[in-house]
Structures are given as structure tokens and as C-alpha cells.
Amino acid sequence: MKENNSFDIHKELSKFSEFLKKKNLKITSQRLLVAEKIFSIGEHFTVEDLTEILKDKRDEISRATIYRTVSLLVESGQLIEHDFGKNSKYYEFSPSSQEHHDHIVCLDCGIIEEFYNPNIEKIQIEIANKFNYELKDHSLNLYGKCKLLKEKGFCEKQKQSDKLN
User: Fold this and answer.
1) 31-55: per-residue pLDDT in tens?
2) DSSP letter, residue 78
3) By C-alpha distance, which of 95, 79, 89, 135 is closest to 112?
4) Which of 19-23, 96-100, 147-151 has the lowest mean pLDDT?
5) Containing domain of residue 147, as a range?
């Protein structure tokens, strides 16, 4: 997996700790270790992916702690839960400095790519205005089959992703 270094990890851990305090929950070393790992992943992941990443800490961190910490990070707004129509929920760390983006998902190789298009953003605002809504948030996921697999019989993007894992 690629590393995500475009944010201040200490600031994010502090934000999570403050969230835990407000909920009267303990700030444990296990929760902070799981959060730190999540903040450094740098791409979409499942809880199974995270469990595999933390396998060397299996004696210290239970599967239940991983699931609960993921849920708390979603509740805090630092983690976004996605349903890309697969068997598992996918998660994405969302530092406050991150710009909005949308996703395109390959139905063959499973690659999830991020993109931003100002025209799409403009159309969404126009539609919200047309129906008399103030747009607060949105999620756009496109699904397709990458042409590489069809043309070449294999997907180079999948091979690149496998190298990162």
C-alpha cells in the first residue's frame, strides 16, 4: 500500500483523541495505533486489509478493537465509508486538508481511482438549486470495466496495485 504523507499525523491523532474525550471513551494505545495505521495507508481499504496490515500486532490489538476504532473514526468524520457494490465496505481517510473527489471503480480488477471534474461539481450545484436544495455533500461513484483488460487480457493497473500491497 502507498503511504499518505500530505497531512500532519500528530494533528489527526490529536483530533481523534479529542473526539474520544468528548465521548467519554478511553484513549488507548491500541486505538491510537490503529488510527495511526489508517492515517498512513494512503488508499481505500477494507477492515480485512487493515487487519492484515496489523497482523504483527495481533497479540496487542483484537479484531473487535479494529472494527470499533474504524467505526469511531467514521463517526468523527476522519474516515469515510464507501459501498462500492462489493462484498466489503471500503474506507478512506479524509484529512480536513483533502479536496473533494469522486470515484470510478473497475468491475473486473477492482481498482478504485479518484478524480475531480469541475463541470460535474457545477452540474450538481445546478441540480440542487433547481430542486431548491442547498447542497451539503455528495458522493459520486462510477462503475465500469477498464479497457486494458478487454484489449490486452490483463490489467496493468491491477499489477501496479498488487505491487503496492
Assistant:
1) 999 999 999 988 899 999 999 999 8
2) S
3) 89
4) 96-100
5) 102-164
CATH of the domain at 30: 1.10.10.10
Strand 102-106 versus strand 79-82 pairing type? unpaired
The x, y and z cell numbers of residue 122, run together, are: 457545477
Asked which of 47, 71, 93 is the last residue of a domain, the reply is: 93
Give the span between the Cα atoms of 38 and 65, in whole angstroms.
Answer: 13
Structural domain includes residue 4:
no
Domain count, the chain: 2
- Nearest Cα neighbor of 75 from 86, 64, 52, 91 is 91
Q: What is the pTM of this model?
A: 0.72
Q: Domain boundary residue among 93, 120, 146?
A: 93
CA distances from 101 to 8, 10, 31, 114, 120 (A): 20, 24, 28, 6, 10
Alpha helices, H only, the chain: 9-22, 29-41, 47-53, 63-76, 118-130, 147-152, 156-164
CA distances from 41 to 47, 113, 139 (A): 12, 15, 21
